[in-house]
Amino acid sequence: MSFWDHLKEMRDRIIYSLIAVAVGFGAAFGYSEEILGLLMWPLNTTVTLSSAFPYVAAQPNEVKQTLHFTTLTEPFWSHLKIGLIAGLFLAVPVIMHQLWKFLAPGLLPGERKYARYFVFFSTLFFGAGVVFSFFVLLPFAVPFLLGYKTEHLTAILRIGEYVDFTLKLLLITGLVFELPLVIVLLTRMGVLTPQWLAQNRKYAFLFSFVLGAIVTPTQDVFNMTLLSVPIYLLYEFGLIAARIFGRKKRPDTTDLTAL
Questions:
Q1: Nearest to 127 by CA among 179, 178, 183, 54
Q2: Domain count, the chain
């Protein structure tokens, strides 16, 4: 496939993905107010650690927080953004399928039959990241940031800033949780090897905490660790999966000494 054919293929896959996002947006925009109420759950809920299973307890706050807007267009654009990101989440299976079709020419013919597994697990890992962010990261991050309120400071939360904050964290965490799948895919394509991944564990551990510090909005050690440890565990899971599903060495059918 020539360079221009690759560009045309990429263009087609992007167009199909954008169409899927547009369809998802059309389905989600009508429920943007309900989604906003869901996004406010970490804002109006206190999550504490406990000694009994499931080791966390969630209690609704007695005083409910409300969001404000300072411009006439801010609520509209916020609902539009909610619908767009929700549409993106709904379109993840289609986007991953288009990504697979773009990458498939670089795989062996026998490997291309795994498309449905790629789509399933990529959607599963992305969804797991979103759920982890919503039920673990946000319930601890939001109260931590609101804890800076003092007698001289009063929190007036704008809808635009809160929506940006929550949706970005959900999206980024969902993408980070794709790490095992990326590792397996690169191993199948011959870019990485399980041996290289195992030898660079210490760098992966360091990178996990660097990435956790970048993604975590609070920058404190506790919340950073909440994300950094799962990132490293995802790396280890990806390493195990790469050893199981990684590309096996092809038999060398050419006798180089005879050349």
A1: 178
A2: 2
